[in-house]
Structure formats: structure tokens, C-alpha cells
Fold each of these.
Amino acid sequence: METNLNNNLQRTSVSVLMINAQGMMLSVLGEDYFVSYNRVPWLRDARISSALNVRMSGAHAIEWPDLDVDLEIDSLKHPERYPLIMKRSPIDSI
């Protein structure tokens, strides 16, 4: 699925180019990015229809509304700036 926002005749879009066992290839604002399931594990077990339902979320982010997943476009360009850190809650051990 491709989503377009027309803003002063400027085309901005996001689309899924390919899905495989390791992740998915996205085209965002004319640039292609591979999103590994290791970095975004919430996409790993998603239904194909939900994974294809991606759209722009403002000018600087994309979202999968069916999955409640949002990514900043900068995290696609510079993944090293966005380490995955999971914070545990004290109630997780109950």
C-alpha cells in the first residue's frame, strides 16, 4: 500500500517494496531502507495486510496503524542513534 500526502505539489510517500524472513524493504520519501525484524520485532509476526498498511505520520515519521507501531524516519537513516533498550517494570517479575 502506498500513502501520499500532497503538500504544495511535493510528493511524500511510504510504501513496502519487499517482505522476507529477515525484514522488509521500505521506500520512504524516495529513499529505500531495509527494516530488520531484529530492530523492529513488532513487525515479525504481523499479517501481510497489516504490514502493508503503512502510512506517513506527519512529516518525520511513519506508522503501521493496525500494529500500533511508529518509527521516526531519522531512525531509518541513522539506526546507530536509536539503540533498542527495553526497560523492565517492577511488575514484570510478579
Amino acid sequence: MTPTDAPAVLIAALSGRALAACARRGGYRPLVADMFGDLDTRDLAEASETVPGSLTRGFAKGALLAALDRLAGGRRVLGVVVGSGFEDRPALLRSIAARHGLLGNQAAVVTAMKDPFRFAETCALADVPHPEVRRDQPADGNWLRKRAGGSGGMHIAASTRRAAPRRGRYFQRQVAGQPISAAFLAAGGRCRVLGLSRQWADPAPRRPFRYGGSSRPAPLSAARAADISGAVERLVSHTGLCGLNSADFLVREDGFDLLEVNPRPGATLDIFADSEGALFRMHLDACAGVLPDAIPRWPQAAAAAFVYAPAGITLPAIFPWPHWTADRQAPGSFVPRGAPLCTVLAEAPDAAAAERLVRLRAADILAHAEGAP
């Protein structure tokens, strides 16, 4: 039970549960504004509000700002930690910062990281390999069509046919490799890499790169892991990044490419959060310019996966969510086709075993949800 005089922190994210859990373990009182209002989010939060919006377009600005104002009302809050949903919303980030203060990257830093051409320039300055990017659609070769500021892989598709120009759309040369993500803390141009995880996609029609899940530690040699950590350190030295962030790579035997940086706590938060809550405190310390002398240690490997509804599912009035699920939706909720149903978690002695277990659990929860009366 968190003491009533513990520091309060506002959390704004498409789904705020993972951040709320991390904050609660760290001894903070989470006040959550998100788009789902899941059962466990409400249990973890001292107070929460469900804010309208869409997964592709983000929050309704006025509704989110009003929700944060109500949550902060009468409380002394440290500021706002944001998760997903703001990569292409710099004006909204500035509004949040003006009202409550941001505990994380400011709008200018987020803009610099998510502008594909400015990011490519930063990678070149830092001597970090990065796939070629273009504004115009290439006539030949293997290219991906992306949306600047997109997240979760929903905005990525193969550039196989001519597409009309669209604001925010760009093209990135497709490269081979195993998807690897680096979770890191940044402060004052320096960083501490927490660890590396392997990621995988859960393809869907028209969304072949939709995020599926991740496991740690990543199956890489010590030398390759050191190369990736060095690349992150060089990149951070050319940015104003602060707090907890992640960097997504494609890694091969002969090298790697950095695809993007997520300037916020990312999708791998569940597998890097520690039971003592040190990670959230480290995030806040890094935002204040202080990096930890030591990073958390995890006794076991871990994996987490999103479970998407393959068809519309209406949950029954009573649905026994297993303890290894998170982002649990309320009884009677309708989950549209392709929408997230929940997150499943697993720990095991090694990453391969954790990944097998999380995939089995994902199939199990889906079978139960689809077969529920």
C-alpha cells in the first residue's frame, strides 16, 4: 500500500497500466489518463480517467488536458510522465508541459527524434548505421512506407505500389536483420544501457509489422551487444534525450542498422521493470540529470506479448483473467477485430523458454476469450 503522503505523478499514455505499475512499485501515487481504463490500471492508480481518442490519431487534445487538470486538482504532483501517443503531437506535449511539467523528453527533443530526416542526420553525425530515407517514393528496390511519428508498427507497410503523396509519409530502405531493442537511461548527453531485448511482429492484414512482443535478454554475443550499446551512447551524445527511452535495431552477423529511437518509456517496460521499483526512480533521476551507478538485475529471463482480437469479442459478465495477464478489460467489454485484448507475461530461466511460455499463454487466453459464453 503506497502511503497517502507519497509523491503523486501524472501518467498520460494510450495505455497507462505499465507505467502505473512501475510508478506504484517505486513508491509513487500514479494518476492515470489513458484510452482504455483497464481493470488493473484502475487498481494501480490512485485516480484515473478514460480519455477519448483513437490508436492511430491519438488523444483528443482538449479532453486529455481537462482530464489531467482534474486528476491534478487538489494534489501536489511532480509532473507528467508520457508513454505512447505523443510522438507526432509536439503541440500537445508543449501544452502538457506548460500546465504540469514533463518528466521526460520535451517537445523539441521528441520532434528531433521522430523527424526521419533530422534523425538520419543525427545518426550520420554519431557514426551509427541507419537505413536510407526519402521523401519521394522510389521507383524500384525494397522500401518501406512509414508515417513520421508512428508507433507500434501499425504505420509501416511495404512500398510495392504507387501511393499518393501524404503529409508525414516517408520511405525507408528495407534492410535485413533480427529486431533488437535497447532500453536505456539518458541524461546530459550520457546514457546507461539497461539491456537488450528481442522483438517480434504479429502480422495482420495491411499491418505486416504490427508489434507482437519482446523477450530479454536478446540472443546476441557479448561483442555484438557491446557494439549496440556503443552506438546508443554515441547517438545520445548528439541529442538532448533524458529519462528512459528505447532504440530499435535490426541486427545481422555482419553489422546492424538503427531504425528509430522511441523518446519515452516503451513497449519493453514490462520486461525491464524490477520488483523493487528502482526503474521508475531511475527515470525521474535521469530526467533531473543523474544516471545510476548500477542498473537493476533480474533473476530470470522475461517475455511479454500483446494479444489482439482476430474477430470481434464480447467479454462475458464474469471472465477469470489469469494472474499472468495485464491490461485486463472490464466485463462486458467489446473488443473489435484487430484491437488489443490484453498483454500476457512470462518469466523463465532463459529467454527462449520465456518466449515459448508467453506464446502458449497468448493462445490460451485467446481461446478462452473466444469460447466464453
Amino acid sequence: MLKKICDPSWEQPLYVTDRAEVYAALRKRGYYVLPCLNENNRGASFPGALYAVENPEEMDGESYDLAYRRLAGLPWEILTTERLIVRETTVEDVDSFYRIYAEPSITEYMENLLADRDEEIAYTKDYIEKVYAFYGYGMWTVLEKESGEVVGRAGITWREGYHLPELGFVFGVPWQGRGYAWEVCRAILAYAREELLMERVQVLVRPENERSLRLCEKLGFVTPEEPEQIPDGERYLLLVKEL
């Protein structure tokens, strides 16, 4: 089986095949290929495949577009709000992040970027290749629709030593006070519930970070009835929201 899918926005077609030799030949020629698994090729090898499909006839155009973008190294657009766009981070966003994090108030309550720009870029590439590809979500880039500028970051991550996914967010000082964090975080929590099928999400907030605490309370985060001992308990408050 060999299926060719085309889209006007793509630079090249996407192929789907259940034959390992066809997969290898197309990959060698630089094409993007999805292996199709069935009872006839369960032992076949498809080296380098990020994804495999079993029922390509059930995939819609959006699913193929997401697969194409992942194979082509293009970011997924996660969601849009009235004023903002949330999409996967790209290496090109790193310089904007450095401008945002250069304001001392940003790193008063959170970790800074890596001091070496090349190391931060390497970290970002690794994050794109491993976290987005494995989970399908993570910390994303937030852009202002009107200007196209990177205004912050927000998303859902997992923190080592904790049992729940975590909402994280940061917005550059020039864009604070506009309700952007409220607008984006509400949309991300809805996305976590409806698309990621999450039931509970946590936030970790420094007690002295009153602005973030107020936002989290407005979003519906509360102290759990049975607070658990947390690794960073001396530095953070743990709040939880039922989705």
C-alpha cells in the first residue's frame, strides 16, 4: 500500500506506506513518510519513524497536517484566543525570550534562561524533538495577534517529584496588565480538559508572588484538602484545579 497526501500549504507531499522497502526508499529521497502497521508487517523495521498509523482511512486532514508539520520540523499551532496565538516554540523564539527574561522582575520568582545562548538553543532543539514529539504538549510560545510579537510563554508540563501536570506561564513586562495571562491560561486549561483529557492540574507559586497568586485563584486553583509534602515546600505553594 502506498498513499500520497497533498496539501497546497505543504512544500512536498506526505506518503503513507506499509512496505518497509518503500518507506526506506522514500526517506532516502528526502520525502516525509508515515509507516502504516498491519497484520502483514508487524515485524518490519521503519527506522527513524516518529509516528506510525494503523487505520489511515480514519485520519482527517488536520491529523495529516499535524503529522506533516512534525516531520517537517514546523511548529503546531495549539490554540488561539481573541488577542493571542499559542503555538509550539521554535529556535527563532529564543532571542525574544532573552529580551523578556532580561527584566529583573521576571526572574524574581522563576529560573532564568541558560547564560550561554548556544546552550539555550541546544536545549530548545532537544525540547522540540523530545518533549513535543513524545507528549504532544509542553511549554509553548504566546504571540500577540495584532503585532505578531512574542509576548510570553505558557503551557502544561510535568515537574520531577510531582504527581500532576502543571500550568506554567510568564509574560514580558510590556504586555503585563492587559489580561493576557488570564486569557491564555483559561484557554490552556480548557485545552487540557478537552484535548489532553486531563482531570486535575497544579500550579506552584512563590508565596510572595501576589500577582500570580491572585491570577491562579481567579482561575479556580485552590489549596488541596489534603496537602501533600512537596519537594519545594519551603519555596512554593501548591494549588490544584479540578478540570
